Amino acid sequence: MRADGNLSQWSAPGFPDDSLLLRDIARGGGFVIENRWPVGAGHDEGNTVMPGRVATAEPHHDSTVMPGLTGHLAAPRIVAYFALLPSPEPTYDVIDGAWLTDEPYGVIHRMASYPEVHGIFSTIIDYAASRYAHLRIDTHRDNRIMQHLIEKHGFTYCGIIWLEDGTERLAYER
Questions:
Q1: pLDDT one-digit tens code per residue, 102-113
Q2: Which one, of 125, 120, 111, 112, lies nearest residue 155 by Cα?
């Protein structure tokens, strides 16, 4: 984010902190994305969404085989994290603008990935859309890349919301 001119989003040291991520996981809404292709191989279809889990002494092994692929899959590597939580989202109660609907929705928060891994946003949106008819998401005004991806994936800009600390975010719905 810093390299793309977004200097203030997630600027607090250690944000998001472990307690927030563990809270997402406890609510059943913390997810990681594993990529079975070597980074840089250009195979975005290797992304798999997995429920977040607290590390244990026993590693997680997923033996899913993808049709048409033979023998050269890399060991799973976590390449991204996101939260997908059910409504209501308290910070969405007040908006300078208007939401598209009052129907229940899923909220996407805390998307983070390695920059060299591609297709993450599409993977997240596809997964979220398979679980919720309506989705809401927000982003920092300086996060131009996220704004572009959000709009590219069919979200409509609805207005400005404010986080608990009073900072504004651009809010979208689909």
A1: 999 999 999 988
A2: 125
